Amino acid sequence: MKRALATAIVILSLATATVAFTQSVGTRLGDARGPQQPVLYSHKAHVGKLGMNCLYCHYGADKSPVANVPAVSLCMGCHKISRADKPEVMKLAGYYERGEPVPWVKVNWLPEHVKFNHKRHFAAGVQCTECHGPVQEMDVYYQYNSLKMGWCIECHRRKLDDPKFPASMDCLSCHH
Ligand code: HEC
Ligand code: HEC
Ligand code: HEC
Ligand code: HEC
Ligand code: HEC
Questions:
Q1: Which of 38, 52, 140, 141 would you call most buried, defined as having the most Cβ atoms within 10 angstroms of its Cβ?
Q2: Closest Cα to atom 36, ligand 2: which residue?
Q3: Comparing C-alpha atoms, which of 124, 118, 114 is closest to residue 63?
Q4: Which residues of the chain have pLDDT under 50?
Q5: Residue located nearest, by CA, to atom 6 of ligand 3
Q6: Contact 174, 115 (CB under 8 A)
Q7: What angle do helix axes 72-79 and 87-98 make, rounded to 10 degrees?
Q8: Which pTM does this prediction carry?
Q9: Are 61 and 124 in contact (CB under 8 A)?
Q10: 88 CB-near residues (< 8 Å, 6+ apart)
Q11: Residue 175, φ and ψ in degrees, nearest 5
């Protein structure tokens, strides 16, 4: 019994380690392995093919710290009619009819002690794709850059002497 338990624990921790390893490699190589999302939404279809603007859905990115992930009602503006018979769109409609938000898996993430502000970067002309990668080519969104301090600093250093939008290296501009 004890031995079976010990074996189970070893197998479990090996499995966890494998997942962690695969994920870290995936992030580093920037390959197309994003998380499994509750609905197969594709940026490639909506941005790359249909030419939709990022701000149509992420309507906070130019005017607030947070970019926002759109509510299902915004999607239904088109999908009440468009592709209404497709399984993934029917799943979407299900959330809408039940009045539930789609439980999207959050991908980009900073620790609590870091401050970040979309509006400031937008105003300074930093493109979404500089930080988030070639989103218009992604069927499944995956984190493209590390979002580590060294990565932030690398750009802030380059833009230290920008005449109009100087970036800061001050610890307190990014940390609470
Ligand atoms: C300077 C880098 C940078 C730029 C430019 C940038 N983002 Fe972000 N974005 C981030 C970081 C970092 C996070 C994670 C924030 C957090 O966890 O607090 C994030 C998070 C997000 C999220 C998740 C929801 C949220 O607001 O936390 C969305 C959606 C998003 N960005 C969309 C956009 C869009 C659209 C643009 C262009 C208009 C854009 N971003 C420009 C770095 C950037
Ligand atoms: C401006 C109209 C419009 C909006 C808004 C819109 N879509 Fe779409 N969507 C389309 C069109 C058109 C297609 C077909 C694209 C193609 O030809 O590949 C599509 C395709 C899809 C598909 C694939 C359907 C299939 O054929 O299997 C899914 C899933 C989807 N959208 C989800 C969403 C979600 C989630 C949102 C909100 C975040 C959204 N859409 C917002 C127009 C829209
Ligand atoms: C039709 C609406 C729509 C458009 C247009 C759109 N997005 Fe999104 N975006 C979503 C949805 C829905 C999600 C959550 C599901 C996912 O991650 O794929 C998302 C997720 C994201 C995320 C990850 C959020 C997180 O959890 O960290 C980023 C970054 C992002 N989008 C950037 C962009 C950029 C940049 C553009 C323009 C090039 C864009 N999006 C255009 C609907 C949209
Ligand atoms: C590609 C370049 C680039 C990257 C990457 C980048 N930034 Fe910035 N950031 C800027 C620029 C340019 C400004 C200056 C905007 C201004 O002067 O208004 C800025 C301003 C800021 C501000 C406002 C500073 C203040 O004085 O209030 C914060 C906070 C910030 N960045 C945090 C971050 C964090 C955290 C990251 C990494 C997750 C990051 N930035 C990544 C270019 C970048
Ligand atoms: C441009 C934004 C930015 C500036 C400026 C900045 N940091 Fe950070 N820092 C971050 C981000 C983003 C993280 C979280 C990601 C990570 O751990 O790399 C972080 C993480 C940290 C951590 C936690 C590391 C860990 O392993 O958990 C410490 C400590 C830290 N910063 C100290 C500093 C000090 C001291 C300064 C000033 C000399 C500074 N930071 C300036 C963005 C910044």
A1: 141
A2: 75
A3: 118
A4: 1-31
A5: 54
A6: yes
A7: 130
A8: 0.91
A9: no
A10: 39, 40, 41
A11: -120, 145
